[in-house]
Recover the amino acids of this structure.
């Protein structure tokens, strides 16, 4: 390690560092539904003696909120959030998790300098050996895909996560969609991935419930009254516009409450919070490919498509090799929706508003 990792900030009585308590509270605010996820997690833990359970979903699909809610409802869970500043490096992860484990399980205090990957794996094994019957060690990591891969040796598991797990040890992970060959994890233990995109009906119901919570807000009630919109019409139209994306719906609802939208049922303007979120997407997309001119050529085609488009069609439109087009799209995979149609891969952006934002951007 290049420099000694910083020890986590004070740990509260529940076991989570106070810096994580704030984001857990923020992420779980106004949380609704997702019972199908919690049921799947519980069934996985009951079925296997150890393992990795991964929740995948597009940006803004509610992954972080789900894990935050799980941490609140299960205070024994060891929680880590990669998205916080400075938390995307392997040495910081090891230091933080070791400190939490030592505190929660009353392991003999050791100097921070001893917190390295081998110690972490040994500590997990030691805790496993001392677990009571039916007691579990559950480590939840939110935003695994945000790791700085340069902070660890090439070819190793993300955050040096164990290839094998001892009995009673589980990792709950959230991450955006990824290609299997680029998972960054080689594990030989039970594992399961739950893709939120596969639960569209359940998510739509949760979106509608989420919107209904806001109907009690005075600003929302006044806005609906001024524009003579019924609550039912409002919920139905906004839920459809959300495309099952909680980040989008939360930002639009906040913008409505703040008087950002003057015209009813027209949400073409992007609220500032959503604009900043999309700006982060844009920066990551542009950094993912070395040939900016070629990337922009591919992007110009994608933003004009209201339906998904095949790699072959994109290549023909810009007179390029299909392999080169596919490479660009794979580097943008977390921001795209992929579907297989007659042995052809088709791509579209994960949300219409992001596509429209990009169209204005370029």
């Amino acid at each position: 390690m290049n420099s000694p990792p910083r020890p986590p900030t004070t740990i509260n009585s529940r076991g989570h560092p106070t810096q994580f308590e704030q984001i857990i509270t923020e992420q779980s605010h106004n949380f609704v539904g997702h019972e199908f996820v919690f049921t799947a997690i519980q069934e996985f833990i009951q079925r296997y003696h150890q393992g990795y359970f991964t929740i995948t979903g597009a940006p803004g699909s509610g992954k972080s909120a789900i894990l935050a809610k799980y941490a609140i409802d299960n205070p024994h869970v060891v929680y880590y959030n990669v998205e916080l500043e400075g938390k995307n490096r392997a040495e910081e992860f090891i230091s933080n998790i070791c400190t939490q484990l030592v505190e929660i399980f009353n392991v003999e205090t050791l100097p921070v300098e001893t917190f390295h990957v081998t110690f972490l794996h040994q500590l997990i094994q030691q805790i496993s050996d001392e677990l009571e019957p039916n007691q579990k060690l559950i480590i939840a990591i939110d935003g695994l895909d945000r790791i700085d891969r340069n902070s660890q040796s090439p070819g190793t598991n993300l955050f040096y996560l164990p290839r094998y797990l001892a009995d009673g040890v589980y990792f709950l992970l959230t991450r955006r969609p990824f290609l299997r060959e680029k998972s960054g994890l080689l594990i030989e233990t039970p594992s399961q991935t739950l893709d939120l995109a596969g639960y569209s009906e359940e998510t739509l119901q949760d979106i509608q419930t989420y919107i209904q919570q806001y109907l009690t807000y005075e600003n929302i009630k006044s806005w609906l009254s001024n524009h003579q919109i019924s609550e039912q019409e409002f919920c139905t139209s906004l839920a459809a516009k959300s495309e099952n994306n909680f980040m989008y719906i939360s930002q639009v609802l906040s913008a409505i409450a703040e008087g950002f939208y003057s015209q009813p049922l027209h949400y073409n303007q992007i609220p500032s919070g959503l604009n900043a979120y999309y700006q982060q997407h844009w920066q990551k997309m542009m950094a993912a490919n070395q040939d900016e001119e070629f990337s922009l050529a591919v992007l110009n085609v994608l933003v004009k498509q209201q339906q998904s488009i095949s790699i072959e069609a994109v290549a023909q439109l810009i007179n390029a090799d299909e392999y080169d087009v596919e490479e660009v799209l794979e580097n943008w995979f977390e921001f795209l929706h992929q579907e297989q149609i007659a042995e052809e891969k088709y791509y579209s952006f994960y949300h219409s508003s992001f596509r429209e934002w990009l169209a204005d951007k370029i």
User: Anything to note?
Assistant: The first strand starts at residue 51 and ends at 56. The chain has 14 helices and eight strands.
